[in-house]
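Exercise 4. Each item below gives a protein and its sequence. For each, produce the structure-token representation.

Item: Fibronectin type-III domain-containing protein (Diploscapter pachys).
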Amino acid sequence: MNKSGLYSAQILKKFNNKSGPNPRLLKIEVNALKEGPNTETYYFEIPSAPRHLDVTLTSPTSVKIAWQPPVHANGILMGYYIYHDKMSGGQDAGAAGYNKRSTTQIRDPAKTYFEMDKLEPNTEYAFRMNAFNRNGDGEFTEVRTIVTGGIAPNPPEILSLSLVRDDAPLVARIDWKPPAIRPNEGPINKYNIWYKPKGLSDSYMKMKSVEGTATSTEIQELWMGLEYDIWLGAENEEGQSGNATETLLTPVGSPDGEPQGVQYEISQGKIVVSWMPPPEDKRNGNITAYKAILTPMDSVGERIERKIDATDSTSPQRVTFSVDAKKAYTFKITASTMKGYGPYSPVLTINPDVSG
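Answer:
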């Protein structure tokens, strides 16, 4: 063919020449436009199809594409093209052709896998690929289809959290904005609310679930005088969203319970009384003080009243009385928050120390 002049070139077909030594050929016809009918035909060797194409899900919206090199590189293999497209109504993507905008070029001929992400959830995709050398694109593999997984919702947005009533029993209301539903994302089935006093173990956690159409609810069984951690999440068939978080301070009240485990011992002629704070759900706030009363059982002595600072409400508290331990006494104690005192403990009888 004369190198000068104007020509048109047309790829007629790729075909298998099974009788030849190189079975994959690309046929091109070149026509001289100015010199009349003058057609020359050229054949270029192109790669055969990559082998063992496999597509597997690695996450709801990611896949791993693996393959083996073609049997016939027919020259220096330069890389691969991966084509993917969404299936529409079960349409055969291989027969319908591929959208070239969904093409990935891999210029490493030694590579045998590729990880693809940012696919749409709950969507069927079709994949195929071919290799290329200096002469052009090789034969296509068979089509592989896969359906991506579903995805959990985004977190809802807490709009407000407030107390409906601020005396016992406490009730709080939480309002939220549903998360935006992404394409092909399943509907929200329910919302889950967890709440517990800050700093306490998960054994104090409470949970409430409401329908997926709800945008508010009330939570109960709250203790007074505490800071609560609140978590709100949305759930669909694919899983639970991340949580929106908020905190709630409940008002302080006087204790509903008395100190626990009151006991005494007599040591070196002194009466030592110890106790534990009221149960956590009866404290209604931080215990700030105790008031202890020791009363002689005869009519001679005077009642003794002591106020004790509660610097650490989780440790055993104690008070010492330097009195005549050979006499009998009664003892009772009450706990206080900043709002006032609660009920007294049952009266404890302290028997005389006969050993002294």
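Check: DSSP finds two helices and 27 strands in the chain.
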